[in-house]
Automatic annotation (TrEMBL):
It is an enzyme of class 3 (hydrolase). GO terms for molecular function: carbohydrate phosphatase activity; protein serine/threonine phosphatase activity; starch binding. Residues 104-261 form the Tyrosine-protein phosphatase domain. SMART domains: DSPc (SM00195). Its EC number is 3.1.3.16. Pfam families: DSPc. This is Laforin. It comes from the Eukaryota. It comes from Glycine soja (Wild soybean). One of its GO terms (cellular component) is chloroplast. Residues 181-240 form the Tyrosine specific protein phosphatases domain. Residues 55-79 are annotated as: Disordered.
Length: 294
């Protein structure tokens, strides 16, 4: 797989309608790729089988796990086209989200699943029955849910009925600064869920291609004795996606920074905080766990 670009992107959720035509001309190439995990590496959490396959050349997932395949009105197709144009431009990656194919997800480790947004209560039934999910971490903002017309309250009610813990840690879509600021609390929720040990954890954003995989990678980096590149390559080899690596590095810097006179993150080289010392990892874990309940 070619390297996923981590260039920053502006904090814009929707592309103005009058600029879509100009943007769409830049989006003709839909190549897909996948990272490979380096051989003979031992991880703290054992990798598990893939749950949904890589993107095809058309940009559509091959054989995705889905709970809804019915046709949607053309209005939803317009939303998808608009969203994918924005994602390709601002995240600098070739991936697409196909809301009309229903929820899709990937089993990253034995107890961690990364995926797209549940769209209806039946998706919660599926996660509980088929995957043993006991915790759901939602990184969407209210406007993300409203954009797709998802009834979030019905999903939350179903979670309560099935005794699934549902937690929200909103971060702004396509905004690396918002992601950087939100990662510590999101990872705190992941760590708490894993410590409870009642079942698998499902972490999602809208498409499961940016914010959610970033939170999962940050957890693997901070709590599972991996450096950032190992954690990033491990996840993206299973679920092709383009989470912003710089946002994860920035959050790592924020948590490990212990001296007020430390060099500003913006002045550091691109490889800074791709790995951390044991004392830094311990400090990060203590600070993340102190965020529980906030």
């Amino acid at each position: 797989m070619g390297t996923v670009s981590n260039i920053g992107f502006p904090s814009v959720f929707r592309v103005p309608l009058d600029s879509q035509q100009a943007l769409s001309k830049q989006m003709k190439n839909k190549s897909s790729c996948c990272f490979m995990v380096p051989p003979n590496h031992n991880y703290s959490i054992r990798p598990s089988p893939i749950r949904c396959n890589k993107l095809s050349e058309s940009g559509i997932e091959e054989n995705p796990t889905t709970t809804s395949t019915s046709k949607r009105p053309s209005k939803n197709k317009d939303r998808m086209e608009e969203y994918n144009i924005a994602m390709k431009r601002m995240m600098r990656n070739p991936y697409e989200y196909h809301h009309d194919l229903g929820m899709n997800y990937t089993l990253i480790t034995d107890n961690l699943i990364v995926g797209s947004q549940p769209q209806k209560p039946e998706d919660i039934d599926h996660l509980k029955k088929e995957e043993g999910v006991a915790y759901i971490l939602n990184l969407q903002q209210d406007k993300d849910v409203e954009y797709w017309g998802v009834d979030l309250q019905s999903i939350i009610r179903r979670c309560r009925e099935l005794e699934i813990s549902h937690t929200r840690r909103p971060a702004k879509d396509f905004d690396p600064d918002s992601l950087r600021n939100g990662l510590p609390k999101a990872v705190s929720s992941l760590d708490w869920a894993f410590s409870e040990g009642k079942g698998r954890v499902y972490v999602h954003c809208t498409a499961g291609l940016g914010r959610a995989p970033a939170a999962a990678i940050a957890y693997l980096f901070w709590f599972c004795d991996m450096n950032l590149n190992k954690a990033y390559d491990m996840l993206t080899s299973k679920r092709p996606c383009g989470p912003n690596k710089r946002a994860i590095r920035g959050a790592t810097y924020d948590l490990a920074k212990n001296d007020p006179w430390k060099e500003p993150f913006e002045n550091l080289p691109e490889y800074a905080f791709e790995d951390i010392a044991d004392w830094e990892r311990n400090l990060i874990q203590d600070r993340v766990r102190s965020l529980r309940g906030t």
